[in-house]
Design brief:
single chain, alpha/beta, TIM Barrel, globular
Amino acid sequence: MSTETVAGAAELRAFLHGLPGVDQVGVEERAARLAARSIKTSAKAQAIDAAIAMVDLTTLEGADTPGKVRALCAKALRPDPDDPAVPRPAAVCVYSDLVGVAVEALKGSGVKVASVATSFPSGRAPLAAKLADTRAAVEAGADEIDMVIDRGAFLAGDYAKVFDEIAAVKEACGDAHLKVILETGELATYDNVRRASWLAMRAGADFIKTSTGKVSPAATLPVTLVMLEAVRDFHAATGRRVGVKPAGGIRTTKDAIRYLVLVNETAGLDWLTPEWFRIGASSLLNDLLMQRRKLADGVYQGPDYFTVD
């Protein structure tokens, strides 16, 4: 390792460990207080449509098939077949080998195609393999790449390795946006979540994302609050805006609205758009559609009314 590289790694470590510590009790109390807020019916209708437009409709199973991906894309194009006014989700997220299927199905719709990459969900692979995975997804037409960090390297304090991998993947993305998955359920402390958030942003992340959805706990309100504070403070310090994506375990309209309140009260109104806030989910969309229909006509449709994701 060169002297310059050693100096850079030392500076990065000093910066990350110089970040203010997170008040665990304060963060959890604030998240709980914001989660308890109620909103009026008119605001709820707007919040539901906003949440639908922020969903990354996701299928990341070993049994995924081209047919399943096409069906998910059809759901994204027309979430409620009886109501063309329903917004479309922001993106459909699939494994890299199925990107071409999604690109073809969503052509011209405005719905983005996102692909997980970099040895998802473990992140344990040589950098060359991670970059090849990323490039393959981008060449197939992915608009967005969701990468996972090497949590082992991060927890061992090898921040420079994590930084360099994110920067290399960002370069491999070309024009595609990069979402960096921290897998917060494995980071153990809120201090680590804050450090990982700043590390990812300094390395070039366009979004920071809580989870793969494969580890419990996945997204939580307190963890997302810490990440929102990080993007707010990063923007104040650098002028560059970075998005946030909680993913995993967000299944109900009530859950989704709690996250929207959290965004508004922490990062601010500017982040309340699909450009800067996403929700990674598979089953959430149906509950949003059911609640939307109930607000519109007073009738609560059962889950069988909508297609199974």
